[in-house]
Specification:
- With about 160 residues, the chain is an alpha+beta fold.
- Helices cover about 20% and strands about 30% of the residues.
- Strands 1, 2, 3, 4, 5 and 6 form a 6-stranded mixed beta sheet that branches.
- Strand 5, helix 1 and strand 6 form a beta-alpha-beta unit.
- This is Metal-binding protein.
- Pfam families: YceD.
- It comes from Saccharothrix longispora.
């Protein structure tokens, strides 16, 4: 894979220098070479709710026809519709990269039931516990609350 990694960098991606294992079958067909098989790799990123680091294995199925030069497929399709053999060589990188990127979750989660972060203190809700909370006073009543709190200290003023 390329040195810069593959995927949504900063969210979830194959890290730079990551290894992609290929298990492929190449078959000669009338119009070219049919490549089928799987590509597997490990992706790293962070949970989109709680920002904890995560890693996961991704395996994708590949099926791609590489057309022979001057074949009917080569002559009847646009250049970007079908992959082509170049000097009897097959470039697998674009096909593998596209398949892996399409298999990545748009919203990666450390677990499906991740609670995320507390909106008040920024702590991870899974670590804070179910009884975690913050007392909030409606700002419209804050002055009245301060008056009552002051009277508790001096009950003679009532």
């Amino acid at each position: 894979m390329p040195a810069e990694g593959v995927g949504l960098l900063g969210v979830i991606a194959v890290p730079a220098g990551g290894v992609v294992e290929l298990d492929l079958l190449l078959e000669s067909v009338v119009e070219g070479v049919l490549v089928t098989g799987t590509a597997a790799t490990v992706v790293e990123g962070e949970c989109s709710r709680c920002l904890e680091p995560l890693s996961a294995e991704v395996e994708v199925e590949l099926t791609e026809l590489y057309a022979y030069p001057d074949s009917t497929t080569d002559e009847t399709t646009e250049e970007d519709e079908v992959s082509r053999l170049q000097d009897d060589l097959i470039d697998l990188e674009p096909v593998v990269r596209d398949a892996i990127v399409l298999a990545l979750p748009q919203v990666p989660l450390c677990s499906p039931d991740c609670l995320g972060l507390c909106v008040d203190c920024g702590g991870r809700l899974a670590d804070l516990g179910p009884d975690h909370g913050h007392e909030t006073i409606d700002p419209r009543w804050a002055a009245l609350q301060e008056r009552f709190d002051g009277n508790r200290d001096n009950p003679e003023e009532n």
